[in-house]
Amino acid sequence: MTADPLAPLLALADIAPAVERARDRVDQAMRHRALRRHGGQVAAEVSLRSAVASAALEGYAHDRESVRAGTVTDPVSQGALRVAGALPGLTERWPTSPRQVLARLHVLAARDVVPENELGRPVADPVVAARLDGLAGLVAGGTVVPPLVLAAVVHGELLNLRPFAGPSGLVARGAARLVLMSTGFDPRGLVGVDVGHREREPEYVGAAGAFATGTPDGLRSWLRHYMAAVELGADQLTAVGDEILAAA
User: Fold this and answer.
1) Which residues form the Fido domain (predicted)?
2) R_g of the chain computed on alpha carbons
């Protein structure tokens, strides 16, 4: 029997407890009473906030209310909104056809940013192709680590590889959210992890660079950051729920 390639990550110092804490924080947020009657409204608001955060992490920071009002038209922000809106419809395809879904995410993210003939096409690099195949294998059932760990690896690897031209960070963040949605950890996309990344942006950038080294310390740094971002995403869900109940 082949050993799980991601299992050693859970043996890194502090990682298993960090994963447990993040999961518990999400479980607590998922019990918010706003989700009983206003679940769709909560999901839509989290989706908007996640898109705004993801665009900001690409260097296109805008006021959330301006984005909501439709006055922000830069193509990267529009791409982030398209990616966020498409995730529920891509959830079922993700575990069976991850390469196709990544291509679709790039088409959504990079429209009007890169030439049309580059949309959905990974860069022509055999090393990138091989690593994408490996990542696809993990998504398609090649690991049984907790969804939070798989999402962190998918996110970190795609940030490192930059397999698509243009705003590839939008693709990486969308793919990580798809892991959480498709595994049933966050089926409605209620946890604004990207908001957590944005709130800790210097750490996000530094930890992503550490992940790229492939060293145990680098991997640990990224995983610790990712779990902290998940906790902040759970807090964001609670805040959105409180706001919607207050306005009801």
Assistant:
1) 97-225
2) 17
- Joined together, the tokens standing for residue 2 give 């082949």
What's the pLDDT tens digit per position in 69-122? 999 999 999 999 999 999 999 999 999 999 999 999 999 999 999 999 999 999
What DSSP line would sit under the chain, residue for residue?
-PPPTTGGGGGSTTHHHHHHHHHHHHHHHTT-THHHHHHHHHHHHHHHHHHHHHHHHTT----HHHHHHT----HHHHHHHHHHHHHHHHTTTTTT-HHHHHHHHHHHHHTTTS-GGGTT---S-HHHHHHHHHHHHIIIII--S-HHHHHHHHHHHHHHH--SSS-HHHHHHHHHHHHHHHTTSSTT----HHHHHHHTHHHHHHHHHHHHH--HHHHHHHHHHHHHHHHHHHHHHHHHHHHHHHH-
> How far apart are alpha carbons 198 and 204 in whole angstroms?
8
pTM: 0.96
Instruction: Pull the structure tokens for residue 231.
Output: 């906790």
Helix axes 216-247, 201-213, angle to 10 degrees: 150
Q: Is the Cβ–Cβ distance between 215 and 125 less than 8 Å?
A: no
* Token couple for 203: 């750490």
What are the distances in angstroms from CA 155 to CA 35, 150, 168, 193, 234? 27, 8, 11, 11, 18
